[in-house]
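FAQ: What does a ligand-bound record look like?

Like this one, built around iron/sulfur cluster:
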Amino acid sequence: MQNTVTPTHCPYCALQCGMNLTPAPDGTVEVSERTDFPVNRGALCGKGRTAPAVLSSRVRLTSPLVRSEAGALVPASWDEALDRIADGLRRTRAEHGADAVGVFGGGGLTNEKAYGLGKFARVVLGTSQIDYNGRFCMSSAAAAGTRAFGLDRGLPFPLEDVPRTGCVILVGSNPAETMPPSLRYFTELRENGGTLIVVDPRRTRTAEQADLHLAPRPGTDLALALGLLHLIVAEGRTDEAYIRERTVGWEETRAAAMAHWPEYVERITGVSVPELREAVRLFCEPEAAMVLTARGPEQQSKGTDTVGAWINLCLATGRAGRPLSGYGCLTGQGNGQGGREHGQKADQLPGYRKLTDPAARAHVAGVWGVDPDTLPGPGRSAYELLDALGTDIRSLLLMGSNPVVSAPRAAHVEERIRALDFLAVCDVVLSETAALADVVLPVTQWAEETGTTTNLEGRVLLRRRAVAPPEGVRSDLEVLHALAARLGGERGLEKGFPTDPEEVFEELRRASAGGPADYSGITYRRLAEENGVFWPCPAPADAPPATAGTGVHPGTPRLFLDRFATEDGRARFAPVSHRAIAEEPDDEYPVLLTTGRVVAQYQSGAQTRRVDELNAAAPGPFVELHPRLAERLGAAEGDPVAVVSRRGRAVAPARITTAIRPDTVFMPFHWAGEGRANTLTNPALDPTSRMPEFKACAVRVEAVGGMQPGPRA
Ligand code: SF4
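The answer part, i.e. the structure of the complex:
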């Protein structure tokens, strides 16, 4: 494999940028431009460019670790480690029942691993208690998209459509930091005469490039969308023919919007009426327009309704299911999209099927060779699962996640993890969560294994193995196979858990056939030849008559152009009203905290905090605050400040800027320790998506070394 150039994809975010990898004689791996992949056309951010550093990191795990009697994690053989996991899970099941064993996955796992993990939980462990960290990512957009359109796919169109539309409203998204190569789509939009509106409480690097920046108070963007819809109606800018022909539920939604007068919305959001009017003008004047959301509106205890309110704008103006128009969600994690389609979510079976649907259960059980009645029902959502650790759930198998850093109310989650009878973690480094485990298994990374991911456009991609893994490391698929062999007893269950990813994908194709996310017409060969295929892509026998004769379905880059995926083909308006965040500021906690990411770190930092170049660019957490707030605290740039919520206290250096509202502070969430932002965040859940309210909670800010009263901004 020496000096062979392997075209593949970045391990990190949902853009899944294409890159070439070349192993060098000194054992390192070189990244070079891969210009044939259309999404990034060779461009990479610093995270992608430095990703190979994690392959050979000095803190890379290369041996299983088991907890010794003295309490330390010590090296062990694979057999000993796997036996310990099988014993731990078996004991819990025998003493407390199958649902006392939990499984927690990740949005970074390949489709094959996500599929295998869901099957392992339901067939081998027989537990309903499985969910994944993608729940914290885009579940509100998924719920709102499903409610409105009958189907959830991050973007229902390729990114290449963005520069050709007339206006994009980007809500709570900062691609300049989270996925920099995507910024060119918005730059090209403006070069083509289109306009960009950014909705964000902070004047981010993305907002600086916008034609209009609306900076609402955190947690009020639902009201903002209602105010815009009110003006759209009042100014006669609705598309009545479209509403009549392609939607249902308009009258109720219209009435809800008309109750949100612009002046009332201005009071709630802090966005002025002239700004609202300008946004409506920019959005409605062109023939085509889009609304794209990300974590800002989604990570709220009313995230589903908030996204629904933004979808309403598209539906009222006829901007969904039409060329160059529509609503989309910019998913976050590398396989945030595919990870939610193939069964590691608490309520889903492969192919984006519902676990409660008898026909779906029968189909998937048939592929798995089990009785449908043996499949457990839906389990708890991610935070609820973590909250039940040590009580209802006594043992946990965790893959590809670091909830000690990434979960809300993280100190409590850490306490619950410590209360477990048994914890097994598969990871590439000793993450903060892995450090608490009874057994840690060292697993392969993206460049050392082949597998598929599905990017934010719904484009299924092939990541190819470019280098051999270090000695002592095995793949997650091998782990599932070995555990199935140990836990399956006489049943020979390991046969259902092949270690070859292509073999797993072949089964996934059959399991997804006929489901909403139908991958049955996709093969590894096609992915290699076609640079990705958009789902749904049914196998020829199931393909529509127009394509069946060709022997191959072309995939579906653009959804909903003829009809929405609802029973009657019409989209559903969401008749939503403004409501407050779960925890409004008060005298004791007078400031709002919002959290997010910085360009040089990724999610919980388990990988990127191991890269020197990224650490040099983003060495640690900080508290971004307005000069007025800093002045009241007597804090200067770089001074440590404490942020205190009802859940805990975090300390980090002050970063003083007018780019944030005076009533709000911002912290990035990539770090553990005393600067851990998620110590503070609120686990209040959205009733539909079960998304926690990461984006807004009440805090007070204190100068470290002397308690000062929290200021009223
Ligand atoms: Fe990787 Fe995302 Fe950066 Fe692209 S934008 S290189 S996918 S982290």
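Follow-up question: can I read anything off the structure? Yes, for example: The longest strand covers residues 648-656.
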